[in-house]
Amino acid sequence: MARRFNNRIEQQAPAFFVRGPSAFARLAFFSALSLVLMVADSRLQYLTSVRQSLQTLLHPLQLLANTPSQLYRDAGEYFSAHDYLLKENRQLKQSVLKQDIELQKLNTLALENEHLRQLLQANKSMARSSVAAEIMHVGRDLFSRKVMINRGETHKINAGEAVVDAAGVIGQVTRTYPLSSEVTLITDKSLAIPIQIERNGLRAIAFGHGRDSTLDLPYLPANVDIKRGDRLVTSGIDGVYPTGLAVATVSQIVVTPDSPFARIVCIPTGGVENHRQVLVVSIPHLAELAESQSVTQQESKSTDTKSAVKILPVKVQKKPTAALSGNAGKRHAAE
Amino acid sequence: MRVNAMQPNKLQSIYLSIALAFICLLLPWSGFSLTVRPDFMLLVIIFWLIRAPNLCNVGTAWFVGLLVDLATGGIFGQYALAYTVTAFFSTSYQRRLVLYSEIQQLFYVGLLLIISQIILLIIKTFSGGQFIGWIYFLPSITGVLLWFLAVLFGLDIGARARDD
Q1: Measured between alpha carbons, how far is B75 from A256 in angstroms, rounded to an integer?
Q2: Which residue from B minimizes the CA distance to A135?
Q3: Do A141 and B74 make contact, defined as CB atoms within 8 angstroms?
Q4: Element of type H or E holding A148
Q5: Residues of chain A contacting B76 with CB distance shorter than 8 Å
Q6: Closest approach of chain B CAs to the CA of A130, in angstroms?
Q7: Does B73 contact chain A (CB < 8 Å)?
Q8: Domain spanning B2-162, CATH class
Q9: What is the CATH code for A131-304+315-335?
Q10: Which residues of chain A fall below pLDDT 70?
């Protein structure tokens, strides 16, 4: 027993001397270092380029980690039943046919719209380019709602661009890396999206709820004209999201006597959590914007900075939509 | 003597295990699996901190925390801070810990995992996050279960102390 104990002392002894500075000293040093990093990242935004370059180094590892699930999916697709594919093919053909007809109508309407706008001498609406992307994985932080997509700076994706799927808006690009980018979903607490009620044109701003996959419409009075089942579409006045894309449907309106505001809960229309294929819609180039609209110099400058992208000036395209709802316009002016 | 002969090998196995844990972290977790995903990196670091404190220290934990920060894409340095503090607690009781029974060690590891989660929770709440409910602490429980499984399959934390 005693020999065993001595043995242990002997074995542990060398470890005593190689330890270097005390654990407490290390704790103090590295904690301070992490605090400095946190401040530099969150308050001063110094670490963007560092993060970008390190993320590029991680990209191959990420691809490696994605391989098993990708293989599994590919195998599943390969062995999926013949009739399923036939059925899908038939459905797709039908929807293409339907869309072709719609498209023909759209062409006529677009021409007509263009003509009417010329007559009214209103601003031209912008054509936007878009990039198809695929969701690589869901964000790993439980506190935020983000996804990573497989297109990045090399595919000309910029922070601030809108991300949509077939059913509606799903979010906004918030960070770009060379080969991938991070998309904050509309259900994230930090994302706000300017919307319009499709039925009456009332404008408001929808905020992500954060905890469950819903959106909130805060700061609307208790007697506001919103009903259950109302569709919210993008108003386009922020210059980020194209006008008229479906965002959410109102699912619940709670009016409490002790609050002057109604609590309005909406469910996103887009497959925020379940689609893989998405479309990144670019923001119209600032030069075009300045050319086609009489934007003052100051405003275009503020859109130029990357960080200000989330809160683009609301005034940019106000003229064409101002007529839609004088009532709501007043409220926004007050805000 | 045997310990010295094993050292170069051990350093490699530390790097290898950290790399493996990192790949586990990078797997495309989503939905419920994301909420129960154990903190692989922290488990590996705690293991090495207790088993080989001469090769792995608070600084290693900080570096590993930075890697996790990079992968999760949150504020840079939050995991680094949480891992640093957790590593400090695990090294300060390391010499006593190797004498404990495996069940006692299990409780201690659980405690360390919860400490790191609490630190992360504080940082995230300060930076505007919202507490998602008690399911937030599920990864600590799954982490302990994973540790238990590893012990069942013959992973020995006190190997150095008991190896005569």
Answers
A1: 37
A2: B28
A3: yes
A4: strand A146-149
A5: 37-38, 40-41, 47, 51
A6: 25
A7: yes
A8: mainly alpha
A9: 2.40.10.340
A10: 1-19, 121-128, 272-274, 284-335
